[in-house]
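User: Can you help me understand a structure? I only have the sequence.
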Amino acid sequence: MHIRFHNHRLIGDEYDLKLISNRDNLPILFNIIQYDESHYTEHSFNSLSELNGFLAKTPCSSKDYCTWMNVEGIHRTDILDELSNRFNLHALTKEDIYTINER
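Assistant: Let's start by predicting it. Here is the structure, written out as tokens:
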């Protein structure tokens, strides 16, 4: 499998990163883990719409518990763009995700 990354520098500190991959048909799995000292729950979703439905009903930020999101197979830029917009990911964090194979 061959993956190419294209980075285009914009004016300012923002990057326009394009991931070109032949893996667009591979499944993506979203896992949400919420826990505190005495409680643990785990939820899995196979689509972004299922995840968005869960997030609409369940707050992800609370001082009472910790929420962890794991995304397996994040290779589609449209999904990464939507997640980064929803959770206000910094452009450099997004760049790190796109260029994970360069580390």
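Now, to help you interpret it: The beta strands are 4-9, 15-20, 29-35, 40-45, 66-72. Residues 9-15 have pLDDT under 50 and may be disordered. Let me know which part you'd like to focus on.
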